[in-house]
């Protein structure tokens, strides 16, 4: 496969144009399928961060006063441009993350375009309330927060940037976005496309860098809100920094979600969903259903079908559309997953499939199925963020609900059953921000997405995100003479 050129014109995108400052620490961008360096960017210096925040502050005031229908038109034009360039953007996403082109063509830029289109449509529909107090009355207005900092993880660089930018911009905010240092390329393309669609300069700036740049943004007085997609430990730090300065936050963090299969489930569907919920993006999906609870009656049958089908995964060059399983996005993440597999073996897990690094250049791990597990094992308790599916068995509905909820995380949950009364009864007792019944990991723009417990605060997508990027201004209107005691 010929590899497209990944080197961006410059590291940052600020005030409507690419910007370079070679004084920043170099960040090599390595193609996970081979380990080769395909581009280099530089971390933002203090000067770059200041320019990004100053230009965003200046641009936001006019943008907040812009007719919302015009804001919406620009976002919808950006959605059209993304769709027209889907292949080019998907190839870049594949180079950035290592995810197979087969996935990136349908799930990344495409999901970003959906968000821009959805919030573009909703921009005009930001309503308040009105109420009366005798002859007096009052109304509320939803106002933008100002400059928002977006900080991204490395598993969905385009989607994360769009899911944050679209509701922020639709509601009249500006955003300074810092992509993950592991995947710095795709957000630059979004910035370029938004300007081409007519977004005024300064409203969506991209600055590169490691955690320190994220920390500089989330503590800066010019920033009104921080929206982070990342791990729980990073979320704790960013949330604490924001709380100190009374900033708004949205936290999209990690998970260890339960995936429950009752004995009356359509087993082929359930196996398909378990494959998607564990091996898509080589398992690097926050909402993955990694604790697969199987009812004892179907556990063996399910496991046999799962293993037989997973053996068919085509592992190879991610730029080849026939490939359906790719590498880990970073070498560090591959090492983390390998450490988890060593711990699982040491704690007595049975490796029913896979379990090893794949012997080829780059950072590959076999699709892995673990059995013989108990709830206290590390591989069942901790987020692995790799292609590792853990099988547990259960006998009883109350038992599985209690075990599903026995975790600090609460991002997602899924269940498979033909008994819809049971499905709704169980969902109502699951501690998870997003639940799927007879499906898994579908996240349309109109459905709120986010976690409860340690998995996050706030929601992305849907009207809920519009609320999280605005605050209420209450206006009391006096209609009668004002009385005073003296
Ligand atoms: N809930 C969701 O929507 C969602 C989606 C994707 C990924 N995730 C989670 O993200 C994690 C994987 O991504 P990751 O390894 O890039 O996460 P991470 O927490 O290591 O990094 C996330 C981002 O935070 C930045 N960062 C690090 N320290 C910071 C600090 N002190 N202040 C400000 N920013 C800082 C990083 O540079 C990066 O851009 C997993 O836990 C996964 O579950 C969650």
Automatic annotation (TrEMBL):
<dbReference type="InterPro" id="IPR016160">
    <property type="entry name" value="Ald_DH_CS_CYS"/>
</dbReference>
<dbReference type="InterPro" id="IPR016161">
    <property type="entry name" value="Ald_DH/histidinol_DH"/>
</dbReference>
<protein>
    <submittedName>
        <fullName>Betaine-aldehyde dehydrogenase</fullName>
        <ecNumber>1.2.1.8</ecNumber>
    </submittedName>
</protein>
<keyword id="KW-0560">Oxidoreductase</keyword>
<dbReference type="Pfam" id="PF00171">
    <property type="entry name" value="Aldedh"/>
</dbReference>
<feature type="active site">
    <location>
        <position position="252"/>
    </location>
</feature>
<dbReference type="InterPro" id="IPR016162">
    <property type="entry name" value="Ald_DH_N"/>
</dbReference>
<dbReference type="GO" id="GO:0008802">
    <property type="term" value="F:betaine-aldehyde dehydrogenase (NAD+) activity"/>
</dbReference>
<dbReference type="InterPro" id="IPR029510">
    <property type="entry name" value="Ald_DH_CS_GLU"/>
</dbReference>
<feature type="domain" description="Aldehyde dehydrogenase">
    <location>
        <begin position="24"/>
        <end position="475"/>
    </location>
</feature>
<dbReference type="InterPro" id="IPR015590">
    <property type="entry name" value="Aldehyde_DH_dom"/>
</dbReference>
<comment type="similarity">
    <text>Belongs to the aldehyde dehydrogenase family.</text>
</comment>
<dbReference type="InterPro" id="IPR016163">
    <property type="entry name" value="Ald_DH_C"/>
</dbReference>
């Amino acid at each position: 496969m010929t590899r497209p050129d990944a080197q961006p014109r410059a590291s940052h995108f600020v005030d409507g144009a690419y910007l370079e400052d070679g004084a920043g620490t170099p960040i090599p961008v390595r193609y996970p399928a081979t380990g080769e360096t395909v581009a280099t960017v530089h971390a933002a210096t203090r000067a770059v961060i200041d320019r990004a925040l100053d230009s965003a502050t200046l641009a936001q005031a006019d943008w907040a006063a812009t007719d919302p229908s015009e804001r919406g038109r620009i976002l919808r034009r950006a959605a059209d441009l993304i769709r027209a360039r889907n292949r080019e953007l998907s190839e870049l996403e594949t180079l950035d993350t290592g995810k197979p082109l087969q996935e990136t063509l349908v799930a990344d830029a495409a999901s970003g375009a959906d968000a821009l289109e959805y919030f573009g449509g909703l921009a005009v529909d930001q309503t308040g309330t009105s109420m009366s107090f005798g002859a007096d009355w009052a109304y509320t207005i939803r106002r933008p927060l100002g400059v928002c900092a977006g900080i991204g993880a490395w598993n969905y660089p385009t989607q994360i940037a769009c899911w944050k930018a679209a509701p922020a911009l639709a509601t009249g905010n500006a955003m300074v976005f810092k992509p993950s240092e592991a995947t710095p390329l795709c957000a630059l393309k979004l910035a370029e496309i938004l300007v081409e669609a007519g977004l005024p300069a300064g409203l969506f700036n991209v600055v590169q860098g490691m955690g320190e740049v994220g920390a500089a943004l989330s503590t800066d007085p010019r920033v009104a809100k921080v929206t982070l997609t990342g791990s729980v430990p990073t979320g704790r730090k960013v949330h604490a920094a924001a709380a100190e300065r009374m900033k708004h936050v949205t936290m999209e963090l990690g998970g260890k979600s339960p995936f429950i299969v009752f004995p009356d489930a359509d087993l082929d569907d359930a196996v398909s969903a378990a494959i998607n919920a564990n091996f898509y993006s080589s398992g690097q999906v926050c909402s993955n259903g990694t604790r697969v609870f199987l009812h004892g009656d179907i556990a063996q049958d399910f496991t046999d079908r799962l293993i037989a089908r997973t053996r068919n995964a085509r592992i190879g060059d991610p730029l080849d559309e026939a490939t359906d399983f790719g590498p880990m996005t970073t070498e560090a993440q591959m090492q983390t997953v390998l450490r988890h597999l060593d711990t699982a073996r040491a704690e007595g897990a049975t490796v029913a499939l896979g379990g090893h690094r794949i012997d080829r250049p780059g950072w590959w791990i076999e699709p892995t199925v673990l059995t013989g597990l108990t709830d206290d094992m590390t591989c069942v308790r901790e987020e692995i963020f790799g292609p590792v599916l853990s099988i547990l068995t259960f006998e009883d509905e109350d038992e599985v609900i209690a075990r599903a909820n026995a975790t600090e995380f609460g991002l997602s949950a899924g269940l498979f059953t033909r008994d819809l009364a049971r499905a709704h009864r169980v969902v109502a007792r699951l501690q998870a921000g997003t639940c799927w019944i007879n499906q898994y990991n579908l996240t349309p723009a109109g459905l709120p997405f986010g976690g409860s417990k340690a998995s996050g605060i706030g929601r992305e997508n849907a009207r809920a995100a519009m609320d999280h990027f605005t605050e209420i201004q209450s206006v009391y209107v006096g209609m009668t003479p004002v009385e005073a005691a003296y």
